[in-house]
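User: Let's play a game. I give you a shape written as tokens, and you guess the letters that built it. Ready? Here's round one.
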């Protein structure tokens, strides 16, 4: 009868005191959560950098255009926004960016110039939709940036 009593058995006491392998189990539970958190933070930082870069580019384009006669330097301003130079040479400031996404508008009544970026498609590095082959779960978003400044030259 004594051998059937598992609560008081020597083997049970050995297993209850033995903590080998618990760190590995804890690591297996926590590591996926830490990796997901790291990926989310990195992706948010990359998105914020992209948006900030596009916003600064529209500001530079608007600043360039307000010192020009309206309608005369639109192409140069678009190149400035996309490439960082008015000549249009070099690589875009953000991957996948082209001058067709830049719009320049003038308001004669308000005497303002607006430079905007419409529908720039931000594609994340860790795109959930691509990883599991479900396009409906894609984390791609359209980024829009706009800057309006008062015209200095009429």
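Assistant: Ready! My guess for every position:
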């Amino acid at each position: 009868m004594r051998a059937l009593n598992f609560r008081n058995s020597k083997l049970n006491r050995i297993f209850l005191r033995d903590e080998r392998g618990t760190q590995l189990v804890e690591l297996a539970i926590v590591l996926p959560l830490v990796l997901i958190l790291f990926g989310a933070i990195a992706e948010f930082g990359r998105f914020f950098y992209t948006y900030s870069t596009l916003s600064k580019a529209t500001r530079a384009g608007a600043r360039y255009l307000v010192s020009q006669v309206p309608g005369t330097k639109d192409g140069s301003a678009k190149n400035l926004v996309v490439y960082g130079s008015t000549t249009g040479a070099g690589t875009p400031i953000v991957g996948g960016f082209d001058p067709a996404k830049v719009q320049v508008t003038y308001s004669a009544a308000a005497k303002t110039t607006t430079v905007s970026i419409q529908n720039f498609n931000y594609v994340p590095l860790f795109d959930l939709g691509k990883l599991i082959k479900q396009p409906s779960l894609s984390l791609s978003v359209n980024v829009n940036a706009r800057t309006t400044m008062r015209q200095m030259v009429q």
